[in-house]
Design a protein that fits this description.
By secondary structure, the protein is an alpha+beta fold. The chain is built from 23 helices and 24 strands.
Length: 703
Amino acid sequence: MPGFDGELLARPRLVALAGLLASLVLALVAWLLAAGRARAQAALARSSELTGQLEQGQASVLAMAEAAQRSQAMLRSILDSTIDGILVDNINGRIFTSNRRFRDLWQVPDALDWQADGAALVRHVESQLEQAAPFLGARAHAPHGHRERRDVLHLRDGRVVEQYVRSMQLGNEQARLWTFRDISERSQMERREHTRRQVLEMLATGAPLERVLESVVLSVQADHPAMLCSILLLDESRHRLVLGAAPSLPAFFNLSSHGHDLDTLQGVHGIAAQAVRDGQRVIVGDLHANVQETMELACRAQLQSCWAEPVRGGSGKLLGVLMAYHRQPTLPGAAHLARLSEAAHLAGMAIEQAQVALALRAGEARFRSLYDHAPVALWEQDWSAVRAALDALEQAGMRDLGAHFQANPDALRKLAGLVRIIDANGAALAQVRANEDDQRRGALSLAQNFDDSALPRFGDALLALAGGAHLYECESSFVRLDGAARQNELSLLVMPGHADSLDFVMVSSLDITERKRMNAELLQLATTDFLTGLPNRRHFMASLENEHARLQRELASCASVLMLDIDHFKRVNDEYGHAVGDAVLRHLGALMCQALRKVDVPGRVGGEEFAILLPGTDLSAAAVFAERLRRRVAESSLTIDGGIVLTVTVSIGMAAMVGTDADCDAVLARADEALYRAKRGGRNRIEQNDGGGDGVLSKFMAQ
């Protein structure tokens, strides 16, 4: 049965083969299921990892957002606490931000939506300015790079604001940083000092009253360009107003008030008359609304508001009125009123001085006929007993009377006691605080012309008159009856026909105590830097010229010049303000004075630049002095408000001064070049310029 056996053998093979295939399929399916499960587990793990990373990212973003909010709040707090008004915009005028000080400074109302409309804020600022050109010009021509633009803005309420514009990069956009600082008080002090100095100088040089008053008016108009001013004076009858100064007002307007009676003046000029009659300030903010009867005159002069400030003398006597006109209806601010009051005070001083000078000239011209009523103090004296005593000394063989008086002051005092006061006019009695009863009782003596300290001047006058001089003039000092010591200017005139006996000597006395004080003040102003107390540039240059002339005469002698500059002084002003900067300048000036000899001459020759002249000092000795001064400055400190300790350093350039220089400017140029080498070399160091190459004397850098 072979066939049957073969079929039986083939069927198990097929079954085995089918089972094998089924096993393979099941194994593949199992493997696929295992692989899918592994991938699912891996995906689940990756998903969990991504979820953790996402949560961490969200936490980081929240932390960054909170930090950004805190930084923004801190930046806003810093901006709002600064003393300067700050505004940030771009070159197209889009405004990004501003601080609280800016809004307070420009009185920006809360209702003004400047963030949506930046032009509205610009119009608001422009409306407060007397002249908007500097502000608008800064917007139209912004600085580029690291440069900055500075302008001074005058507000209609009298304030003065300093404006700085700097370019800056704000992200990817070019922006501008505006800073505004109210410098009204500082500007007012500077203007007051400048105007006062100018008026004092003009009075001291005898300038005409019209010129002095015009200077006062122009100074007020320079401070407030929108203001037109005039000064009207009361005439001698005190019933009419006459024009003192009105350089900017129309001629027809000035003539309409000049010489008119106070009672006939109406309208605009009636305001001046009212201020004079009442002695009070008068303010009319709108002439057209309040003074209808003068509409035509006001329209012709294009004036719409008027302020009147009475002008008084030192004794309170009313002398005139200072008028301020505007072409727009406006009311004065506190700064305006302070400026007008100051100008009126200066005008009163000038008018009084002119009146005194006029009275003095009239008294001298009518001396003989107006003796009793002369405004100058006049004394009639009898020197005959003094002349007899001199004759006795000469007969006794005394030839040199001048040497005798110097050796015997008591003898001169006895001669002064022999002078008899015959008469004194009212001005003389008032000058020495005496009355007619004092004169009758003989309480007056030569001490009211020459006191004990002025006896040498009396001796000179005596020798001159006894020698044949008819007129002798001198300055002296005297004592009033109340004991006050004063200074006077004397003119001693021997009346014709009395030269031999000296029994009729007329003495005119002018109290120059205040003039002396004024001259001393003028000299102080002309030669001294008001901030540091050091000699100013003019005085220092004069000393330098004198030293150069000495070196030209004495070629073997020597001298050195030092130029000093405060390092990073601008940073001090920017960080702490100009008041601290001024304190630093005074601090350096005091340190310089402490280190100098009596013959040395310091000086402030620029903003933060100083110079020192060291006569009789060569460069080696000057280097020792300069190093000592540099160390003193670097090691000293200045405590400012808030307990902040500030330390500054100086760079010093030095050069020798020689008589062969063409002028004194040559040594300054050499010292200045050495100074700039010191600053370029790192500051807080000393360099010299001896005409050669690098002359570094000290390389001590600021720590």
